[in-house]
Amino acid sequence: MILSDRDIRGLLALGELVVEPLDEEVIRENGLDLRLGREYCRFKRTNRVLDPRKPGEPSEFYDCGEADEIVVQPYEHILLHTIEYIKLPPYIAGLVNLRSTWARTGIYIPATVVDAGFEGQLTIEVVGSSFPVKLYPGDRFLHLVLVRLNTPAEKPYQGTYKGQTGVRLPKIFGAKEPSM
Question: Most buried in the list 76, 114, 147, 179, measured by CB within 10 Å?
Answer without folding.
Answer: 114
